[in-house]
Amino acid sequence: MANSVIEFRQVNKSFDETKVLDEIDFEIEAGKFYTLLGPSGCGKTTILRLIAGFADATSGDILFEGQKINELPANERQVNTVFQDYALFPHLNVFENVAFGLEIRKISKTEIKTAVNEALKLVHLSDYGNREISELSGGQQQRVAIARAIVNEPKVLLLDEPLSALDHKLRKEMQGELRDLQRRLGITFIFVTHDQEEALAMSDQIFVMNAGKILQSGSPVDIYDEPINHFVADFIGESNIVPGKMQRDYVVNFDGQDFSCVDAGMKPNEAVEVVIRPEDLDIVAVDTGQVNVTVDTQLFRGVDYQISAHDKMNNEWKINSIHKTSVGQIVGLAFEPEDIHIMRYHETEDDFDARLETYE
Ligand SMILES: Nc1ncnc2c1ncn2[C@@H]1O[C@H](COP(=O)(O)OP(=O)(O)OP(=O)(O)O)[C@@H](O)[C@H]1O
């Protein structure tokens, strides 16, 4: 990649006998918003710590703009980190917190003042320089932490679950602000979250992780529409995942019937998993859709109903619909061939658990 800023080559990290990163390979392109997404304990923070230089890889290479930086001390790396708990200095005011990194670099007072004011302006805190940290809301403290990181003009900003302490509404607002800030600054952001909605909303590129591995990387749309396996399909939004068998190109069998799909290139009779998103299903009269299901539960959510149902093979179906049904009712489900996504390779959570055990 011509514009690569960070690259991991077969990076492994173990603590004693426990492997927490397993052959991690990726390239990060300059100027984009990347997200590491995965459940708690999958190794996201460890990747950030390796990039920042707070921890060493057990094996493999870490490159910054094409140069190996495995041995480079943290303070010589052109990256800054925004931590989950902000890590602000409580005895310094807002201005002093942001200025701290510049002061230890012995930059002139005038330059510091200009840079700090510019950083505070970028995070919409221009009038807050004299405030004590204890006088700020959570969202404002988060902005100070971001200003303190960007004032150093890093090439890469690492953000470790920076929004997790905020309430739902503020969190949504900050997602938009961070996205805007990244675009305005044009520096690379590497953002860590376990919240799939946040990852889809903010990122240019997502790395979906589980159990120390990157399972899939791609744009939010790619990952949502073309999940590579069961874990990704399930983790990114809600999915109906039904076992099936590829009959031939463009024809898949599930629920005891053949369906047209847009997938080809698999072996005849290959076992597959069929994914259809709940919002792609329409509820229609019984026998007028492709699959009939019996409604098991129905929840009203304001904008729609979240319905769960089962088909004659006892596959579970989740449907988001504006149409009200009733428990026990048999309805038809209609969908288009392009709403069917076929996954040829699947690894269930049980498989993952089994793989995890091999680490121990
Ligand atoms: N210093 C350490 N010593 C031993 N094990 C560690 C250490 N740091 C992390 N781990 C383990 O490494 C694994 C990955 O941790 P990491 O913090 O990278 O996960 P994460 O995906 O960021 O999780 P979370 O979302 O909970 O922060 C976990 O099982 C964790 O317990």
Automatic annotation (TrEMBL):
The family database entries (InterPro entries) matched by this protein are listed as: AAA+_ATPase (IPR003593), ABC_SmlMolc_Importer (IPR050093), ABC_transporter-like_ATP-bd (IPR003439), ABC_transporter-like_CS (IPR017871), Mo/tungstate-bd_C_term_dom (IPR008995), P-loop_NTPase (IPR027417), PotA-like (IPR005893), PotA_ATP-bd (IPR017879)
**Which reaction(s) are listed as its catalytic activity?**
ATP + H2O + polyamine-[polyamine-binding protein]Side 1 = ADP + phosphate + polyamineSide 2 + [polyamine-binding protein]Side 1
**Does the keyword section mention Mitochondrion?**
no
Recorded GO MF terms: ABC-type putrescine transporter activity; ATP binding; ATP hydrolysis activity
Entry's PROSITE patterns?
ABC_TRANSPORTER_1, ABC_TRANSPORTER_2
Output the CDD domains linked to this UniProt entry.
Answer: ABC_PotA_N
Q: What is its EC number?
A: 7.6.2.11
Gene Ontology CC annotations of this record: ATP-binding cassette (ABC) transporter complex
Pfam families per the UniProt record, alphabetical: ABC_tran (PF00005), TOBE_2 (PF08402)
* The organism's place on the tree of life at top rank: Bacteria
| Domain named ABC transporter: residues | 6-236
User: What SUPFAM superfamilies has UniProt attached to this entry?
Assistant: MOP-like (SSF50331), P-loop containing nucleoside triphosphate hydrolases (SSF52540)
Write out the entry's keywords from A to Z.
ATP-binding, Cell membrane, Membrane, Nucleotide-binding, Translocase, Transport
- Subunit description: The complex is composed of two ATP-binding proteins (PotA), two transmembrane proteins (PotB and PotC) and a solute-binding protein (PotD).
Described purpose of this protein according to its UniProt entry: Part of the ABC transporter complex PotABCD involved in spermidine/putrescine import. Responsible for energy coupling to the transport system.
- Which family is this protein grouped under? Belongs to the ABC transporter superfamily. Spermidine/putrescine importer (TC 3.A.1.11.1) family.
Q: Which PANTHER family match?
A: SPERMIDINE/PUTRESCINE IMPORT ATP-BINDING PROTEIN POTA (PTHR42781), SPERMIDINE_PUTRESCINE IMPORT ATP-BINDING PROTEIN POTA (PTHR42781:SF4)
Name it: Spermidine/putrescine import ATP-binding protein PotA
Upper taxonomic lineage: Bacteria, Bacillati, Bacillota, Bacilli, Lactobacillales
